[in-house]
Design a protein that fits this description.
By secondary structure, the protein is an alpha/beta fold. It folds into 5 domains: about 220 residues, P-loop containing nucleotide triphosphate hydrolases (Rossmann fold); about 230 residues, no CATH class; about 170 residues, no CATH class; about 100 residues, no CATH class; about 80 residues, Immunoglobulin-like, CATH 2.60.40. It has 36 helices and 29 strands. A 5-stranded parallel β-sheet has the order 2-3-4-1-5, sandwiched between helices. A 5-stranded mixed β-sheet has the order 9-10-13-14-15. A 4-stranded antiparallel β-sheet has the order 16-19-17-18. The radius of gyration is 40 Å and the shape is extended. The two termini are about 75 Å apart. GO terms for molecular function: ATP binding.
Amino acid sequence: MAMKPWYKVVTPREDLREGRPQDASEFAVHLDKVREGSAPRDYQDPRRFFERTYLTETLCSFAADVVARLSGKTVETSAVYNLTTQFGGGKTHALTLAYHLARAGSKAYAWPGVMEIANKAGVSTLPEAATAIFVGTEFDSLTGRGGEDGTPLRKTPWGEIAFQLGGSEAFEKVREHDERMVAPGGDVIRSILPKDKPSLILMDEIVNYTNRSRKLKNGMAEQLYVFIHNLSETARSTQGIVLAISVPASELEMTTDDQGDYIKLEKLLERVGKAYIMSARSETAEIIRRRLFEWEGVPSDAKTTIAEYADWVREYRHTIPNWFPVDQPYEPFEATYPFHPMALSVFERKWQALPTFQQTRGVLKLLALWVSYAYQKSYRKGEKAPLITLGSAPLEDPLFRAAALKQIGEGRFEGVITTDICGNANSHATRLDDEAGEPIRSHHLHQSVATTIFFESISGGAGRTAATLPEVRLAVGGPGVDTANIDTVLEGLAPPTGNCFFLNAENNIYRFGVKTNLIKIHADRKASIDEREIHTLVKENVRKVFDQASTVERVYFPKRSGDVMDKPAIMLAVMAPNRETTSEETRTMVLEFSKHHGEAGRTYKSALIWSMASDSSSLYEAARDHLAWKEISDEADALNLDEGQRKQVRQYTESSKRAIKEKVWEAYNMIGLYTERDDIEFIDLGRINSSASESITRLITTRLNQLEKLTGTVGSNFLVRNWSRVSAEWSTRQIRDAFFASPHFPRVQNQEVIKKTIERGVSEGAFAYVGRASDGGYDPFYYREPLSTLQIEFSDDVFLVPKEEAEKEIERRSKDNRIVRFVIEAPAQEVAAGQRCTFTARAYNKDGEQITGKEITWHTDGGEISDLGEFCADEAPGTYCVTAVCDNVPAEVQIQVKKEVIREKDEIQTRITSLHWDGKVDPFKWSNFYNRLIIKLMKSGKLDLSINLSVNNRGGISQEMIDEIRVALKELELDEDIQMNKSVYDY
C-alpha cells in the first residue's frame, strides 16, 4: 500500500487549516482571564480544555494530589505545591486544570481523563471547592480592584483572595490589613476560609509582583512573602485547603533582586510544600499532537508510512546517527507522527539550551505556524509528503521565520536565511532546486538540506553545534529519496564548491554562521562615494516611492512658491529630502509657500499637504551603502573576487537598493498643514515602513482621515451653518473654492466630496440646487428630489439657495399649476359582473396644459378599485359611481354593471412588462437625458442601467486624468478597472 500524504491522514485544527494560526499567547494560559470568563475557548470551556490536554504523568499526579487534599485526605498529601519549570513549560496550564476540577466538582467526571485522576487520588466523589486566583502580572496595588463596581476596594493579595473566597463578608475580616497593607496572621486567614467547602488558592507570577512592589518601595514585596508563609502554615494545619504557587525557573527573565526574591520564596516552599517540576520532555510529542490536530490516536492509514520509514532506517542504518534506535525504529516514528522524529527532537537536542527558548509555548507556536503553512501549501500544490520533515520547516514564511529567530534570539540569521536558504527569489537553495533535474527538484532537496542544517546549527551551549552528515541523511532521507542525491546537494551548497555565502563545512560537519568576508571592502568603498551622486539617487527613490499607487497630485522638491500650483484640488508637495523639519529655514519656507504663489497671494491654501523628512541621515546612508555595493560589483575583476563572492555582492546590491525605499518611508514621516492661525501645523506620523500602506501618499491621506484633518464626507448642515454672508444665492464655484481656500472649512479629499454634500442637502431639503432662468426664475430647480453628482457643476451661474427660498419657489410654482379641470376617462360604459377595467384621470391647468405627477385618490360605491384606477365590477348588477380626487378637485363617472358577460369576441388581455433601449447620448445632453428619462424609469419599475464609456484623444490622456477617473469610479462604488489602449504616432 502506498504512503498517503500526512494532511490526508490527520486533520489540523480548524484555525490552522484556514491559515490563521494564533499568536504564541494562545498557548499561554492566563488564569485571571479564565476566572473572568474572557479566556480563549480552549481554556475557558472545561470539556474542551481537557480534550486538548494530554495528561502527562506529572500533570496527572499533581491533579490527583490536589483532589485528594481537597477531599480531606492528609496522609501522603501536601497542602502546599510549588510548580517550577523552564519558562513556557506548563506551570499555568497545570493551575488551570486544578481550577476547573475544583470549580466543577463531580460534574468533571464527564471530561476526558478525570476518572483517571479520581482513581489515582483514591476518591469516589470529586469535591467542589471555593477558589481564589492571584496573578502577579495583573494585580496592581496602586489602583487595586473594585471600589467603583459595587464591590469593596482591594489593594493587596490577601484582600483579593479573601474577596474571591467569601465575598464582601470575608473581605471585611481583612479590610484593615488591606488598607494598612499588612499581611494577616493565621487566625485571620482561617476566618476568611469557607466553613462549608474546601478551598483552592492559586498564585502565579509572584516574582513579577514583588519586582513592581520593590520599585514602589511600599513594603509589599516583604509583606507578600510573610503572607505566603502564614498562608502556607495555615493550609498545612487545616483540612481541605490547597495552596498552589507557580514559580518561574528561567534566570533570563529575572533581575538580581528578582533572584533574591525567588531564592527566598523557593526555600520557604521547599520547607512547607511539595515541588512539582512540570516539564515532561518525553511526552512533548503527544502534547503537540493534541494541541495542533484533531487527534484521536495514530490513524490506521499512518501505519504504512511508519513501517516504510522504519524499514528505510534498517536498510540505511550504517549511514544515520548511532544515537538513533535503529533496532526499534518503528516506535519513534509512531510516537511523533505526522512529524518526522528529527523535526521534534531537534528542539530537545539543540534548542533547549538557548536562553531565549520557550520550551513548550515556543515549540507550540513554531509548530502551529509550521503546520498551518504546510497544510495550505500541500493542498495548493498537491504535494505528497508522507511526513512533516525538519527540512520542510517554512523558513520562507516571514511569520514562521520571525518566530524562529525570536526563539533563537539572533536576528542576524534573517539575512542568512533569505540569502542562502529561502524567502527570496534569489535565495541560493531555492534557485539551485529550480535549476536541478529530477528528483532533486521535486523533493526541494537543496532547500530541505539547507533548512535541516540551519536548525541543527542552533544551540545555546558553549560549543559550536553543527549538523553532521548522518543527521542530515536521517532528517532528509526516507523511502524514495536516494542518499546519493543528498551528497550531491551538499556539494552544491557547501564550500568549497557550493554557492552558499554563510555555510561553513569541514570534515562532513556543516554549520551556518553570520560572518562574511566582504564587510571590510564595503566599508572602505562607502567612504569614497561622491555626495552629489548620493543626493541624486535619494531624490530618484523619493519620487519612485511617492509615485507608487498614488491618487493625489504631487509636486516634488519646490524651490520657489510658484513651483506649487494654486488650484482647487488637494496637492501633495514633497520637500527635498535635505529640507528637514528640524530646520527653521524649512519651516519658514513651507509657511511662505503656503501663503504665496509667485508674486501673488495663494488662494487655495488648504489644498496643500506638505510632506517632509524628519531625519534623512539614514536615507542618505542607505543610498551611500547601495552605491558602495554597486561599485564593488562593477570592480569585481579588479578586486579578484571569486564566483561565490560575486554572487554575494549582487545579493547585497539588490538588498541595499530595497533598503533605500524603506529609508524613504522612515524619513518622510512629517506632514505640514496650513491652519486658521496663519501658521503650519506639523504632524508626526511616527515610525512607518512600506508594509504600512501601498504608498506613502496613500498612508498620508489615510492618516489625515483618521486624524479628521482630511475627510471624504461633509454633512449638508455644515453648509447651512456656514452660509455665505454676501447673498442668499451662493454659487457652487464659491462653495468649492471655500473648501480648498479656507482652513475654517473641512479639508476634503476631492471635489466629488463637495458634490455629494450638495447632493445630500438637496435630497434632504436643506437647500436647493438652481440655475438662473430667462424669466428671472430658476431653471433647473432641484429640491427634495434625487440629484446625481454628475448633474452638479461648479460655476458662477449655478447656485445653492436656502431652504426658505426654495419653499417660496415651490409655492410660486404651485400657484401657476393649479387644477382647473379634472376628468375621468372610462374604457366602457358597461361591464359584466366580475369584469376588470382601468379608468384614467387627467388634470389640466388654466392654460389647458395637462398636469402630471400629482397623487390621485380613487373611490367607488360598488365593486373595488385600486390606487392605480383598476376597477373590478361587483357581482350584483346595477349602476355605480367611480370617483377620483386630485388636490381636492373631484371627478366622477357612472358605470353600468350587467349580469351577463359583455364581449364581442374572445380577447386575451396583455400588458407591457419590460422596455429596452440602446443608443448613443450626446455628453452635453446627459443632464436632460437623466432628468427626462432616467428618473421617470426609476419610478416605473426596476431599472438596470449599463454604460459603455469610450474616450479617444490622439494627443494622449494624462495619468492624472486616469487617476481622477478611478477615484470617481471608486467613490461611485463602481468597478475601477479601465481598459486602456496605447498607440504610437509618427508626427
